[in-house]
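Hey team,

Filing this mostly as a record. A colleague (T.K.) asked me to run one chain through the structure pipeline before their review meeting, and I want the input and output archived in the tracker in case anyone asks later how it was produced. No errors, nothing strange. Just documentation.

Input sequence:
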Amino acid sequence: MPIARDLDLVFPATVVPPLTPFTANGAVDYGALERMVNYVVEDCEATMVIAAGVEAQEYQFLSLSDRKDLIKSTIELVGGRRPVAVGISHPSTRTVLELAEFAQAQGAAALQLLAPMKPTGGQPRLSELVRYFESVLQRTTLPMMLYLNPGPGADVSVKDTVELAKLEGIAFVKESSRDLTRVSRLIEEIEHGGHAHYFTTLQMNLASLMLGGTGVTLPPPAAFISNKIHRAFKAGDWVEAARLQRQFALFPSRWMEFGLAAVMKAALNLQGMALGDPYPPYEPLPPAALDSLQAYLKTMDL
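Output structure:
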């Protein structure tokens, strides 16, 4: 089955997952989601949008049917303004394939799939990960983003990551590590090796661009700053790019004890986006933390 390995993306790229707002009874608030998607596309100028693909989107709390509704609605709300990569992560390949087929039928431009832990415990072997990804790649024509995030997913070695990036159909790699040694080697072997485009996370944004990486995947409102970093980088204004990147030295790390979704939702709420709280039983930032976050946001280029 021929796979469209690449998309017509502008680099450096900002790939953005819209956060998921919920109503008081735990349903997705689609009115607030529309405002969120418009902010991601128009204000953050996302290069590509992720639907139900990263943990900060809290898709894990949804039933399979509700997750499909979130995917479908996100694609519809983006409305062709940007390509949408749909998250299909799940320990079961049967469910992954169901989501992949659904995403393709809804008009997704790409798929994103987390390298999984073994459901029975322990780290998977390379041969197991290869079979896992190939079982999906053989059933779709969409390019795939290999998503690496130890904790919710497997801790894949550098050597094994390079081998997975060589699989036919892997067009992008999203790396969550903040380890410069790992990141720089993977950029060299994967991006410069011609296997796939390599994306890092917000703390590594400017460093990875300087090393030849493709871009970054990060949630709003951090994506708004990232877009400014990319503009300064493309203009050759290293001083401005570094000034903007320094804002990620404290945000969101100073408040990360409350969780990424809680911090980013709080930041957006303080900007008037009305995203609500994290999915229960997980708690929003307490008043003192919220006050300190609000004070810091006023120093940022938001």
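Quick notes for T.K.: The first strand starts at residue 13 and ends at 16. The domain at 13-237 is CATH 3.20.20.70 (TIM Barrel).
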